[in-house]
Write a structure and sequence with these properties.
Blueprint: H1 3-7, H2 10-14, H3 26-34, H4 40-57, H5 61-78, H6 81-97, H7 101-118, H8 121-137, H9 141-158, H10 161-177, H11 181-197, H12 201-217, H13 221-237, H14 241-257, H15 261-275, H16 281-297, H17 301-318, H18 321-337, H19 341-357, H20 361-406, H21 408-471, H22 475-481, E1 485-490, E2 498-505, E3 508-516, H23 520-540, H24 546-561, E4 569-578, E5 583-589, E6 594-597, E7 600-603, E8 611-612, E9 623-626, E10 632-636, E11 644-645, E12 650-651, H25 654-664, H26 669-684, E13 693-699
Antiparallel strand pairs: 1-13, 2-3, 3-4, 4-5, 4-8, 5-9, 6-7, 6-10, 10-13, 11-12
Length: about 700
């Protein structure tokens, strides 16, 4: 949420009564202050002035601080807790919005004991949420998330829709920063739902912006533009100039990502014209960085230098580590182009130090832990309710037992009557046993027939397995072509929908790891069919580029299998290795290769569509990169990442898999395979394997 606009909501949150509900100008408030007595009314005037002066006179933080400190001193003298709390909350918001988070945190932390004394859940929520914002803006995401979850606890206690929306939006920002985009979208959508129910147009526009930003990070440009335009529509109707600037800035960034820097710059300039005269530090720093990057992409070095230099000064003063790191990286590129290698190195070194300090792998784990702990707390509440129900149920049971005791005599009489029929029932059972014995013999015969049929089916499937394995890449060929490689291949059933395949053609080595629709027998049929189409494309049609090979296989699949709108096909990666030039061309359908170079892991690009009939059927992209000795390439299907297990019975996930690959990549191929196999076996435990699993690793 834009910082400048957050403060505009402060007094809405506190409610409207007395002086806060009136539209006072600074002059009229000052006149009222001059004639006021030292009572609670004067504290209210001082708090109102701190807000009005900040909003109306720009950057008057010294004057604002004087009013705030005066309000605190007088309220403490009068023991006016509510006025004291409001003064500190004002200070926290104002200094946070001007980038002075250290000062803001001091005022906010001093406000927490006042919340305790007032027993105010509403105020606890506001203070804790603002503290979370301060830490988040400093890049301390772990601490920020802790305060956001504490704030959410109080929001749920109050059931205030606006509070809940604010909490979910804050958590969405945290998870978006951590690149956990699915969780970010989940929380932003919840925030939008509550703001829509509350008919809060201003906050709805912020939610749309955040959803657009998240889809932008996922490179889903159409969805991003949709949400940005939703936000812009609200902002235009409400004449929210700063909000419009955010939308212009974000739409421009989409064009920049689409490699249209000139179009991007048009939107950035609209945003810059507003941001330069606003008090919104977040917006201004973002526009500076983006204009710098646009001019740099257009090779306008001097203009790029101008905006990156201003961004560096601005973010350094505000102590915003993420934005400063981006500005330093841009300046390093510029001075490298200007052949000033010393400055380029200096800027790059500082950028790298900041970036390394922001390494949030552990923070991401901590955030997941926080979310888990929050869920545990909710479960605990449910358990307490269940215990209360159990206690009441126990009391009912005691009363029921009293009734039963009184009824025992009647029961004994009933037993006596029933005993008369026991002998007759015994005789009937004896006759039934004879019938059951005959039926049991017949069932044994049927069982033997079923077992025989099952054996025949298993024998057929095992024979199909031998056929399928014969079509997979032969180990002798792989050992010759790729001496340092490993394959971890674990079908869910006897036969597999995953497959690995390799061939040499015109001194080039083609390798594929793919995941066909389904698993077991249907998946195996698909794998055999796709292997045949791959061989046909290269050997018979002499198609050499991986993307064209995938295009051919898709065409054949649609012609042969998709007449009834079935979406049969495969996800996978096909690489072509040119050993002579140490170059790899590849095409990727839904699954992305992972490349490790200089101990750094990169998840390479992919096309988000299958090889087969799908929602998107555009031509596949040809990607290329060079490798050197010691580099490591991994190709895998989704079976490993999707396996349930661990202490919480959750998915292994791609992030954990990639972290494991980075940890293992320096080991031998055999050691890597064994470690991967042991890790997934330990993770799965006693749970069932959910899908076929295939990972290939190649060391160059």
């Amino acid at each position: 949420m834009p910082k400048h606009l957050i403060l505009l909501l402060v007094y809405f949150f506190f409610g409207s009564s007395g002086l806060f509900a009136q539209n006072r100008t600074v002059d009229s408030l000052k006149k009222a202050l001059n004639i006021s007595k030292n009572d609670t009314n004067k504290v209210k005037l001082l708090n109102a002035l701190s807000y009005e002066v900040y909003v109306s006179t720009e950057k008057s933080t010294d004057e604002v601080k004087n009013y705030i400190d005066s309000a605190i001193a007088l309220s403490e003298k009068l023991n006016y807790l509510k006025g004291n709390l409001r003064a500190r909350f004002n200070a926290g918001n104002i200094f946070s919005n001007t980038g002075k988070n250290d000062i803001a945190k001091k005022y906010l932390n001093d406000a927490l004991p006042l919340c305790e004394k007032l027993k105010s859940d509403d105020d606890f929520f506001r203070i804790l949420n603002t503290l979370g914002k301060c830490y988040n803006e400093e890049g301390n995401y772990k601490q920020g998330a802790e305060y956001y979850y504490k704030a959410l606890h109080y929001a749920e206690k109050t059931t205030n829709k606006r509070f809940l929306a604010t909490s979910y939006n804050s958590l969405g920002n945290i998870f978006s920063t951590q690149k956990e985009y699915a969780k970010a979208i989940h929380y932003f959508s919840k925030a939008l739902r509550y703001n829509t129910e509350a008919d809060d147009k201003l906050k709805m526009s912020f939610n749309y912006l955040n959803l657009g930003n998240t889809y932008s990070s996922l490179n889903r440009y159409d969805s991003a533009i949709y949400f940005y335009n939703k936000a812009l529509g609200i902002q235009t109707k409400q004449k929210n100039i700063v909000g419009q600037a955010y939308s212009y800035n974000n739409i421009g960034f989409i064009y920049f990502k689409k490699n249209e820097p000139s179009a991007a710059l048009d939107y950035y300039k609209r945003a810059y014209a507003i941001a330069k005269s606003s008090e919104d530090a977040d917006l201004y720093s973002s526009v500076l960085l983006r204009m710098g990057s646009a001019y740099l992409k257009m090779n306008n070095i001097e203009e790029a230098l101008k905006y990156y230099t201003e961004a560096e000064d601005y973010t350094r003063k505000a102590k915003w580590t993420s934005e400063l790191s981006e500005a330093l990286a841009g300046l390093s590129k510029i001075y490298r182009l200007k052949a000033d290698y010393k400055k380029a190195l200096d800027y790059y070194t500082e950028h790298k130090v900041i970036k390394d300090s922001m390494n949030n792998a552990e923070v991401g784990k901590k955030l997941s832990s926080l979310e888990y702990n929050y869920q545990i707390e909710q479960d605990k509440k449910i358990t307490e309710l269940e215990n209360e129900k159990t206690r009441l149920k126990h009391e009912e049971e005691v009363n029921r037992q009293r009734i039963i005791i009184w009824s025992i005599s009647i029961f004994l009489l009933v037993v006596f009557v029933l005993s008369i029929f026991i002998y007759k029932a015994y005789k009937q059972k004896e006759a039934a046993n004879k019938i059951i014995s005959s039926q049991k013999s017949e069932m044994e015969k049927q069982k033997n027939i079923v077992e025989e049929k099952q054996k025949e089916i298993l024998d057929s499937i095992n024979y199909a397995k031998r056929i399928q394995y014969a079509l997979l890449a032969h180990s002798d060929f792989l050992q010759t072509a790729l001496p340092q490689h490993f394959i971890l291949f674990k079908p869910k059933d006897i036969v597999s929908g995953d497959f690995y395949w390799a061939i040499e053609h015109n001194h080039l080595i083609y390798v594929a790891v793919c995941d066909c629709t389904g698993h077991g027998v249907p998946g195996a049929f698909m794998s055999v069919l796709n292997i045949g189409f791959l061989n046909e494309a290269i050997k018979e049609k002499n198609i050499t580029q991986p993307n064209e090979i995938f295009n051919y296989v898709r065409k054949k699949l649609i012609e042969n299998l998709s007449q009834e709108e079935q979406k049969d096909g495969m996800d996978g990666v096909l690489i072509c290795i040119d050993k002579q030039n140490k170059k790899i061309n590849y095409s990727a359908a839904n699954n992305a290769p992972v490349f490790i170079n200089n101990h750094t892991l990169q998840e390479l690009d992919k096309d988000k569509m299958p090889v087969g009939k799908g929602i998107i059927e555009k031509p596949f992209t040809l990607y290329s990169f060079n490798y050197k000795e010691g580099d490591m390439l991994y190709i895998y299907t989704d079976g490993y990442a999707d396996q349930f297990g661990g202490p919480k019975g959750k998915k292994f996930k791609y992030r954990q898999l990639n972290d494991l690959l980075l940890k293992l990549h320096s080991q031998t191929a055999l050691q890597q395979r064994n470690e991967l196999e042991q890790t997934i076996a330990s993770w799965k435990g006693e749970l069932e394997q959910v899908d076929d699993l295939c990972i290939m690793g190649i060391k160059f």
